Amino acid sequence: MSRISFTQATLPARKRIALVAHDHCKSFLLDWCERQRERLRQHQLLATGTTGLLLGQRLELPVESMISGPLGGDQQIGARIAEQRVDMLVFFWDPFEPQPHDPDIKALLRVAAVWNIPVACNESSADYLLSSSLMEREHSYRIPDYQTYLAGRR
């Protein structure tokens, strides 16, 4: 088994922010996004199905919607993270309710950790991320060096 090496990448000043919320947490995410509307409008937003629809209506901002999380939307967001097309994940998940798509949720959080993107799982952590001085500027960070990985597998 080959060891993963790393390289540097740059998060852009205009972040691509994925917004995800379990059913019991959607109202918390909607309220948080409304409070943070002016900051969020400076970035590109995407979300899983119902969450994206509700956010677009409430914020009157463009939100690219994937399909519903349980139908594969979590995996769509995860794929975008692996493709370096998502820079930050705000995922208000429900710690009190088991989810039928728990393996997808675990995979989404894992891929976010692998690709070293900022993740917020509740209002407090999301407030901290959005208020960071790094939000409005480019930021260099470490990611897996996939090309070196491929070269070692030959």
UniProtKB/TrEMBL annotation:
Keyword Manganese tagged: no
Reactions listed under catalytic activity: dihydroxyacetone phosphate = methylglyoxal + phosphate
CDD domains membership: MGS (cd01422)
Residues given in the record as substrate binding sites: H22, K26, T48, G49, T50, T51, S68, G69, H101
One Gene Ontology MF term: methylglyoxal synthase activity
Domain MGS-like, first and last residues per copy: 9-154
InterPro entries named among the record's database cross-references: Methylgl_synth, Methylglyoxal_synth_AS, MGS-like_dom, MGS-like_dom_sf
Active site residues per record: D74
Similarity-based family: Belongs to the methylglyoxal synthase family.
Entries under NCBIfam families matching the protein: MGSA (TIGR00160), PRK05234.1 (NF003559)
Name of the protein in its database record: Methylglyoxal synthase
